[in-house]
């Protein structure tokens, strides 16, 4: 049913793995076992963009990160990502971000980077596999530990009308734009954190959902359009954690186990109580690299 979702996701993987190479639709289609025509057509159908445009936006975005994070010459970065000259790279960069590569390197600012497309999820995986043939979930016992997070600022969006990740993006927030802009600010993330972060907040007895990036308390830089910047007080957090797992096979079970533990745990058993002054909880979701965690602020009894 979702064979092409899975196949287009393999195309996305191929693009990322060969991002500095000269893209060849024929070469990619041969490796995947489908004709170039069908590969191109299905990619456009599922992502809303042509494969050529996707490759271009990913290349220019990866080049932007190298401008920000390395001392490589602009010309060397341009050639690395397939541009024929520094001039053609500059034209493409200005078209994408409305700033020259030299100006961006000198003063990095939030820009709309192209994020990796995701069209094949655990939901699709579940529907494409016969239940009897699916591997048993390998969910481990939820770990609980304490972590201190210093006072910091959080740049992002707080939406009181939704309470989960899926509903957040269905409530008028553009995932590609928001995640792309925040990705350009990843170098500013609070040390020890994962960068882009989601979670829940509480206001006047209501629970909402947030998405953004934690930065240092002394951050004085630009705030992207449509986002706010708020100070979050220091606190210890109870971290309800599951180690890295197979996203496609086990995501639902892992998230369910962690969140069930987090929402039903009595912190008094660890000598704490919930810290009502912080008023927001965090999620960390990076299945293959970190795992999944819910962080709830606490203070000692």
From TrEMBL:
Residues 9-107 form the HTH araC/xylS-type domain. It holds the Pfam family HTH_18. One of its GO terms (molecular function) is DNA-binding transcription factor activity. Keywords: DNA-binding, Transcription, Transcription regulation. The keyword DNA-binding applies. SMART domains: HTH_ARAC (SM00342). This is AraC family transcriptional regulator. It comes from Paenibacillus faecis. The lineage of its organism: Bacteria, Bacillati, Bacillota, Bacilli, Bacillales.
């Amino acid at each position: 049913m979702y064979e092409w979702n899975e196949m287009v996701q393999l195309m996305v993987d191929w693009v990322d793995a060969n991002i500095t190479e000269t893209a060849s639709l024929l070469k990619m289609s041969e490796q995947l076992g489908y004709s170039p025509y069908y590969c191109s057509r299905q990619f456009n159908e599922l992502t809303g963009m042509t494969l050529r445009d996707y490759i271009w936006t990913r290349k220019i975005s990866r080049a932007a990160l190298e401008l920000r994070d390395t001392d490589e010459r602009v010309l060397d970065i341009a050639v690395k990502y397939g541009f024929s000259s520094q001039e053609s790279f500059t034209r493409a960069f200005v078209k994408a971000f409305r700033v020259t590569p030299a100006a961006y390197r000198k003063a990095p600012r939030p820009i709309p980077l192209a994020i990796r497309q995701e069209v094949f999820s655990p939901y699709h995986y579940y529907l494409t596999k016969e239940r009897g043939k699916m591997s048993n979930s390998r969910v481990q016992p939820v770990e609980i530990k304490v972590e201190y997070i210093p006072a910091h600022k959080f740049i992002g969006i707080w939406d009181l009308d939704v309470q989960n990740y899926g509903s957040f993006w269905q409530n008028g927030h553009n995932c590609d734009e928001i995640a792309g802009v925040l990705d350009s600010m990843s170098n500013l993330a609070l040390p020890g954190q994962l960068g882009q972060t989601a979670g829940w907040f509480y206001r006047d007895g209501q629970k909402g959902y947030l998405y953004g990036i934690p930065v240092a308390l002394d951050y004085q830089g630009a705030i992207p359009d449509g986002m706010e910047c708020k100070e979050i007080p220091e606190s210890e957090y109870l971290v309800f954690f599951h180690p890295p797992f197979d996203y496609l096979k086990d995501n639902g079970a892992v998230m369910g186990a962690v969140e069930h533990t987090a929402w039903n745990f009595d912190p008094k058993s660890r000598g704490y109580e919930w810290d009502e002054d912080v008023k927001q909880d965090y999620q960390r979701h990076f299945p293959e690299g970190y795992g999944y965690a819910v962080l709830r602020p606490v203070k000692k009894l």
